[in-house]
From TrEMBL:
Residue ranges that the Swiss-Prot or TrEMBL entry lists as coiled coil: none
Protein name: Site-specific integrase
UniProt entry tagged with the keyword Magnesium: no
Keyword terms, alphabetized: DNA integration, DNA recombination, DNA-binding
Record domain Tyr recombinase: where: 218-391
Family named by the database record: Belongs to the 'phage' integrase family.
Domain of life: Bacteria
Nucleotide-binding is among the record's keywords: no
Species of the source: Aliiroseovarius salicola
Amino acid sequence: MTGHQMSTDCQNYTDTKRTQRNVIRLTDKVVKGLLAPEKGSKVQYDDALKGFGLRVTATGKKAFILNYRVKGRERRLTIGGYPEWTVLGARKKAEELRREVDCGNDPLEIRDAALKAPTVHDLFERYVREHLPTKSERSQVDDLSMWTTKILPVLARKKLVDLTFTDCDALHRAVSKTAPVQANRMVALMRKSFNLANRWDWMQTNPAVGVRFNPEVKRERYLTHDEISRLLAVIEGRMDDTSAELIRFLLFTGCRRGEAFQAQWDQFNADLTVWTKPASTTKQRKLHRVPVSSVVTALLEARRRATTSDYVFAGKTGQPLRDVKKTWQTLCRNADLVDVRLHDLRHTFASLLASNGQTLPTIGAMLGHSQTQTTARYAHLFDDSLANAAEIVAERVQSRQPKTMSDSRLKR
């Protein structure tokens, strides 16, 4: 369909007298034999179906049309071009459209709405404008990567209203072949995005709901006391290295690396004993106030003497460090640490709290967890202390057990 045809369809059609003349039964022979007008266009109407006809332009192009009245308006809709549409096919479509009109619907309005319906790419653009800025910097990078490398290459042109569970499930299975964990994160992102689309009245259901996630094995890698000693020893040899100091800071605070990268002096109290992380740097987007140890305070005092930047861990330009991957790899190699991620320092911090008798609520407060189930992953680390407690109870119970009958008779 040409742009000119669409423009013609969208205007009100008011020439009712024209529909009352030039009427004949449309057949393949009649349609083939219709000649083009010298200029403009002409319509040959069908004598059996009201408003159904064939439009012929001066260039010889032919298309089936339907004129109808709805809500007091005369409308014209182009069904399709000839010979792509046969007379029989166009007639059946015109009959369907007529039934729609009889029900009070406007087929042309419905078609226009469908053409203008937002696509997955439209959702991406609005997500980036309105929702992405509410997330942490790291989450923004991850979201954009999944959108641009996984979702959009497959679904960008898909209308949201036409999106199905099968579309989402197929994409998840395709990504799962090479990146099963990332495939799960992608579906979580899709579910959130489609929920937003529901809120914006762009779609009525969430087609990503029900996609079955791939099994994930939670990492539980904690540094042993010996590994911690070796790591600190190699860090001590790089005391003037800002990235090494940041890694030491991670070990002694259990914070997320993004929080450390964005740490500024105005987030700490005057004597550097309390760290108040702004909501913009935390994963939960909530203010997190937490005391720090005397070791961290000493580290901060040394950093404050060594830098004039507003950031605690700044590079040569005064801007915050953005990555310490190379330094971490070097430290692990020199400390003989195997299969340890930077994030495992956070797990290690939590494990040390648990093994030294701190409660789960305390651990959650130190780590900035907003949900108790997040901290619950460390519950098994209390097994030793709980076992000791169970033994204490057993000993106390046994010490208060009444003497047996045999013992009583012996005394008599």
